[in-house]
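Study both lines:
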Amino acid sequence: MRQRFEGKVIIVTGAGSGLGQDYCYAFAREGGRVICADIDESAATRTV
């Protein structure tokens, strides 16, 4: 598997649900270090 984002840090806003959550998972699968941010802290925590 190719790790396109290895060594990169990605900040995703709206990470608690929907596309933001999907992007968090996708970037992490590709090797990125992902910072998940959301206005609802508990939703962002569930994503992690």
In short: The mean pLDDT is 94. The CA atoms of residues 27 and 34 lie 7 Å apart. Residues 18-29 form the longest helix (12 residues).
